[in-house]
Amino acid sequence: MRCRAVSEVQLRNALDTLKSTGVRITPQRHAILEYMIHTMTHPTADEIYRALEKTFPNMSVATVYNNLRVFREAGLVKELTYGDSSSRFDFVTHDHYHIICNDCGKIVDFHYPGLNEVEQLASHVTGFQVNSHRMEVYGVCSDCMENNTEQKRA
C-alpha cells in the first residue's frame, strides 16, 4: 500500500481533475478511483468489480469498464494490454516500465531513467518524431520461483 497521506492527495487531485472536465463524482466512481490509487497490482476491470461488489451490489462490470474509460480519457489511468489477456489498469501515469511474471501474470513497476535516451536515439537514427515508448520485461517472480521450488521438493 502507498503512503496514506500521498494517497489522499492523489485522490483529491484526481477528483479535481474529473470535476474540471465536467465529470460528476458518483459514489461508484469515487470507490473505483480510490481502489486504483491504493492498489499496486495493475487490476483488471473484473478484479476491481469483485473487490467492490460487496460495497456496491448493484454495480455492474460494465459500470467499472465505463468509469475506467472516463479515467483513461481524463489521463488518470493507463490501460495496459498484453497479448490476448484482459486489459489491466495502472493509476501511475508517469513514465515507468513493467516487469511481468510469465507464470502468474503479476505486473510490477520499475523506473530506469537511462531508457529515456532510447527515444532520442531512435529519433536520431530513424528521423521519426517519437511521442512515446513502451517496454516490458518478462520473467518469473519470486513468489512463483518459491512455489516452483516447493513443488519440486514434494
From TrEMBL:
It is found in: Cytoplasm. Fe cation binds at residue 133. Coiled coil: none annotated. Its cofactor is Zn(2+); Mn(2+); Fe(2+). GO terms for cellular component: cytoplasm. It holds the Pfam family FUR. It comes from the Bacteria. GO terms for biological process: negative regulation of DNA-templated transcription; regulation of secondary metabolite biosynthetic process. GO terms for molecular function: DNA-binding transcription factor activity; transcription cis-regulatory region binding; zinc ion binding. Binds 1 zinc ion per subunit. Binds 1 Mn(2+) or Fe(2+) ion per subunit. Zn(2+) binds at residues 101, 104, 141, 144. InterPro entries: FUR, Fur_C, WH-like_DNA-bd_sf, WH_DNA-bd_sf. SUPFAM superfamilies: Winged helix' DNA-binding domain. Keywords: Cytoplasm, DNA-binding, Iron, Manganese, Metal-binding, Repressor, Transcription, Transcription regulation, Zinc. Belongs to the Fur family. Manganese-dependent repressor that controls a regulon of oxidative stress resistance and iron-storage proteins. May act as a hydrogen peroxide and organic hydroperoxide sensor. This is Transcriptional repressor.
